[in-house]
UniProtKB/TrEMBL annotation:
Coiled coil: none annotated. GO terms for molecular function: metal ion binding; methyltransferase activity. Keywords: Metal-binding, Methyltransferase, S-adenosyl-L-methionine, Transferase, Zinc. This is Methyltransferase domain-containing protein. Residues 104-189 form the Methyltransferase domain. Gene3D superfamilies: Vaccinia Virus protein VP39 (3.40.50.150). It holds the Pfam family Zn_ribbon_RlmA. Zn(2+) binds at C20, C23, C37, H41. One of its GO terms (biological process) is methylation. The keyword S-adenosyl-L-methionine applies. Residues 19-53 form the 23S rRNA (guanine(745)-N(1))-methyltransferase N-terminal domain. InterPro entries: Methyltransf_25, RlmA_N, rRNA_m1G-MeTrfase_A_prd, SAM-dependent_MTases_sf. S-adenosyl-L-methionine binds at Y80, E111, G112, Y200. The lineage of its organism: Bacteria, Bacillati, Bacillota, Bacilli, Bacillales.
Length: 293
């Protein structure tokens, strides 16, 4: 399933959304695979089909193995399927007129599978998905795997997106930059941020860090910060368990920063079995840009 947009790989499809990361100017298409601003800053599409619009060196310690494992879990298991369905429902029901659609931007999209699944859930309804990440490896994999999507390698604190151009900002289990989110949200647009709850992936925490305080987690500070930026927020709590088989458990460990500091014996205890139920416990924080609507 591809994004509901045709010919997304033409630079012309980007010019109403993106802005020059050097001067902030509007882009024009400079042929089918290049963007250029009035001051002459030009950016060519990479051969995999994404734009590199970063102007400073990015540091990401997420490598291809992690992203491959992440894609396997998201697309090959149903671990996150209820989450995707819930978010697609929120977009369709609460982000203005569903018939009109609009732009859905995943800020911190990684290798793109969450966004792809959510766009799939929305169906051919006029919504366009765009993924932004500061990991070039993630964006490269996303562009290669999801050929009709729009993918941009960029600094998330200085997103090369035009002011008030976005109907839905997604921020899934990754750090937020509320100043940027509010700048790019159109009037009436919504931010959907997903934060872990206390029992998120609890089976992994208990096996790997059972005797340390890494087990305990509260999202209260994140929720409080969100409320400072979006006073009329809504919170949707989602908690469920899904079965992962042995292969999925191994992918699951490879994509989990939680496991990077764990002892090998504990990792083996987690993965060397027929499968396990894994808990997904998240809060979906919904904020609307009411400032100008
Ligand atoms: Zn420029």
């Amino acid at each position: 399933m591809n994004f509901p947009i045709n010919g997304a790989r033409s630079a012309r499809n980007y010019i109403s959304i993106l802005k020059c990361p050097v001067c902030g100017g509007r882009f024009d298409a400079n042929g089918p695979q290049s963007l250029i601003c009035p001051q002459g800053h030009a950016f060519d599409m990479a051969k995999q089909g994404y734009f590199n619009l970063t102007i400073r060196p990015a540091h990401s310690h997420y490598d291809k193995e992690l992203f491959d494992a992440r894609r396997s879990i998201i697309t090959g298991s149903r671990l996150y399927a209820p989450l995707h369905e819930t978010i697609a429902g929120m977009i369709a029901n609460r982000a203005g007129n569903p018939a009109s659609g609009g732009l859905v931007v995943d800020m911190g999209c990684g290798e793109g599978s969450h966004l792809q699944k959510i766009m799939h859930g929305l169906g051919p309804s006029g919504w366009i998905g765009l993924g932004v990440d500061l990991s070039k490896e993630g964006i490269r994999l996303a562009a290669r795997q999801y050929a009709d999507g729009l993918w941009v390698f960029s600094d998330l604190a200085h997103a090369p997106l035009q002011d008030q151009s976005v109907q839905v900002v997604l921020n899934l289990l990754s750090p937020a930059n509320y100043r940027e989110f509010k700048r790019i949200l159109a009037p009436g647009g919504v931010l959907v941020k997903v934060v872990p709850g206390a029992d998120y992936l609890r089976e992994l925490r208990e096996t790997l860090h059972g005797d340390s305080n890494k087990r305990d987690y509260s999202n209260a500070n994140i929720v409080s910060l969100f409320r400072q930026h979006f006073s009329k927020m809504e919170v949707v709590h989602l908690k469920y368990r899904q079965w992962l088989d042995t292969e999925a458990l191994r992918d699951f460990v490879r994509m989990s920063p939680l496991a990077w500091s764990a002892e090998q014996a504990k990792i083996a205890a987690f993965t060397d079995r027929d499968g396990a139920e894994i808990t997904v416990d998240v809060d979906l924080l919904l904020g609307r840009n009411d400032s100008l609507s």
